[in-house]
């Protein structure tokens, strides 16, 4: 959905707050669930891995602020922490610039659809980090931007209510690390997302849709393509894919509309995500629900009627059942 400059400006405060929510909530997720094996950890916990941090995708995708958690999760998954890699003074291990460059080159020069998606997410991560420190300083200097319910949700998870010096140092370190990519390479994330989607890589539909709806995307995307991607996103969500469910769960109002879902679907995706995460790691879903709801409330979601809630509950059951079958398979 195309937005005017005034529309984007009016949402700037929301995006900045959402960025801080993701960063601070990510630290809380690590605090509560960071000792779990990566293979067993749910999406949100992987996204919050100390070496990667949850990043403010809203800075580059303001039209779909609710997509930020998934983008952050994808970026984290593409660049895991590896023991023995160089450390930034006083900070956790991070992936080396050389390794990040290798992944992107593999995605651009041959490689599988999955390699292309990893490369695209790596570049998207770096695009986010180019603007992250500035946004974090804004939130640090204006703590009143953070709604009370958001601060409480983060505190309940064991996280910090304000942007810390350590969080700022991590963001600045990642910003410097990402300078390994030149402008020409950074501009190729779109083609990598398309390659991943065309090759049917898992999770690529959401990532490609987000890239096309970004305000800095070149040209206007084909409406037919957007509609097709939205349908594929719903299909992935209905199958119980956590990377797809989480951003949809946080969407509301115009943001949900841009992602192609109704209020009924958004409610079902939220509840299904929470239940699936709790089944994978007890307590994780309920903890993340506080953050999900806090962000969604910033978009003023309308309450469902009794009939709509029954429809949403039925869809929730279908999604959870599909997720269980996939895990067993």
Structural summary, described in words:
- With 329 residues, the chain is mainly α.
- The chain has one domain.
- 66% of the residues lie in helices and 0% in strands.
- The protein contains 18 helices and no strands.
- It has helices spanning 5-10, 12-33, 43-47, 68-78, 97-108, 113-129, 132-141, 148-156, 165-177, 183-186, 189-198, 204-213, 223-238, 242-250, 253-259, 263-280, 284-297, 306-328.
- The protein starts with a helix and ends with a helix.
- Residues 1-13 and 28-92 have low confidence and may be disordered.
Shape: globular
- Could you spell the SSE succession in H and E letters? HHHHHHHHHHHHHHHHHH
Report on the biggest sheet. none
What's the N-to-C terminus distance? 37 Å
Number of domains: 1
Strand content: under 5%
Give the mean pLDDT: 73
Uncertain spans: 1-13, 28-92
Number of strands: 0
Binned, the helix content reads 55-70%
Number of continuous helical runs: 18
Instruction: Tell me the structural class.
Output: mainly alpha
What is the radius of gyration? 18 Å
């Amino acid at each position: 959905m195309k937005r005017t400059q005034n529309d984007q400006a009016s949402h700037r405060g929301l995006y900045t707050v959402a960025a801080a929510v993701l960063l601070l909530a990510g630290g809380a997720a690590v605090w509560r669930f960071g000792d779990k094996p990566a293979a067993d950890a749910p999406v949100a916990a992987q996204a919050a891995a100390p070496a990667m941090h949850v990043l403010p995708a809203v800075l580059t995708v303001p039209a779909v602020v609710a997509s930020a958690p998934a983008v952050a999760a994808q970026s984290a998954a593409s660049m895991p922490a590896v023991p023995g890699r160089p450390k930034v003074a006083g900070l956790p291990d991070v992936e080396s610039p050389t390794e990040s460059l290798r992944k992107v080159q593999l995605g651009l020069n041959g490689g599988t659809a999955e390699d292309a998606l990893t490369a695209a997410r790596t570049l998207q991560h770096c695009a986010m980090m180019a603007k992250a420190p500035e946004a974090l300083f804004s939130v640090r200097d204006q703590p009143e931007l953070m709604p009370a319910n958001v601060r409480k949700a983060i505190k309940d998870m064991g996280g910090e209510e304000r942007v810390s010096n350590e969080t700022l140092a991590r963001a600045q370190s990642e910003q410097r690390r990402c300078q390994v990519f030149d402008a020409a390479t950074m501009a190729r994330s779109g083609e990598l997302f398309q390659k991943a989607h065309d090759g049917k890589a898992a999770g690529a539909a959401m990532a490609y849709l987000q890239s096309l709806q970004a305000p800095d995307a070149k040209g206007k995307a084909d409406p037919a393509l957007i509609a097709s991607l939205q349908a594929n996103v719903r299909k992935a969500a209905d199958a119980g894919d956590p990377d797809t469910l989480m951003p949809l769960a946080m969407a509301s109002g115009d943001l949900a509309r841009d992602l192609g879902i109704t209020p009924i679907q958004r409610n079902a995706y939220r509840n299904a995500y929470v239940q699936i995460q709790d089944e994978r790691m007890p307590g994780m879903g309920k903890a993340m629900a506080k953050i999900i709801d806090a962000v969604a409330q910033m978009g003023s979601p309308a309450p469902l009627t009794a009939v709509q809630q029954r429809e949403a509950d039925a869809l929730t059951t279908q999604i959870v059942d599909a997720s269980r079958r996939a895990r067993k398979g």
